[in-house]
Amino acid sequence: MTNIISICDKLDRAKLKKDAFLDERRQRAVENVFQRSCCAIECEKCGRPTPGACSKGGCPQQDDQRVPYHFCENCKEEFTDYIERLKGRGDPDCYWRNEAWLEVWSTWINHRAALDRHARSKEFARLLQEVKDSTPD
Ligand SMILES: [Zn+2]
Predict the structure, then answer these.
(1) b/e per residue 38-52 (b: at least 16 CB within 10 A)
(2) Ligand 1 centre from 106 Cα, in Å?
(3) What is the Rg, in whole angstroms, of the alpha carbon atoms belonging to the chain?
(4) Using CB atoms within 10 A of its CB, is residue 130 exposed (0-12), middle (13-18) or buried (19+)?
(5) CA 42 to ligand 1 center in whole angstroms
(6) Is the N end or the C end of the chain the one with fewer CB atoms within 10 Å?
(7) Band of pLDDT at residue 52, cut at 50, 70 and 90
(8) Is residue 68 assigned to a domain?
């Protein structure tokens, strides 16, 4: 009898441990997405702190329609130059911004777009709902 209880107890504990691990992964998945919001205090590309996290309603970075990301000044300048180079222009003094550099930016933008698609997916919406339902008010 003791053995049966012991096995059940072990199974319960294993389930609780698995549930806790799943909860932790749910929480992390949500946090990862919200760290990339427009109100983030770090640059979306390089992670450096950015000045002036936006207050509700007026995000200074969103006023600049050419830069749809929350960047530090350096990444903002690079992104703007990247867009200019795609149009056949760009700053000629920055000779190191070559084909490989363009590829770095296009890869980052594609990666970022994939993250956005994931954040808008119905599976992610389900995750948000589950996390919301399991969070006490
Ligand atoms: Zn940056």
Answers:
(1) eebebbbbeeeebee
(2) 15
(3) 22
(4) middle
(5) 8
(6) C
(7) low
(8) yes
How much distance in Å is there from the Cα of 50 to the middle of ligand 1? 8
Calculate how far, in angstroms, residue 73's C-alpha sits from the geometric centre of ligand 1.
Answer: 7
What's the CA-to-centroid distance between 137 and ligand 1, angstroms?
A: 36
Domains of the chain: total? 1
State percent of the chain over pLDDT 90: 43
9 part of a folded domain: no
Helix segments in the chain, DSSP class H: 2-34, 60-63, 73-86, 99-119, 122-134
Mean pLDDT across the chain: 83
Please tell me the distance between residue 129's alpha carbon and the centre of ligand 1 in angstroms. Answer: 32
Q: Is there a domain that residue 54 lies in?
A: yes
Query: Roughly how many angstroms between the first and final C-alpha of the chain, as a whole number?
Result: 41
Ligand 1 centre distance from Cα of residue 123 (Å): 30
The domain in which residue 119 lies consists of 28-134
Residue 15 lies in a domain: no
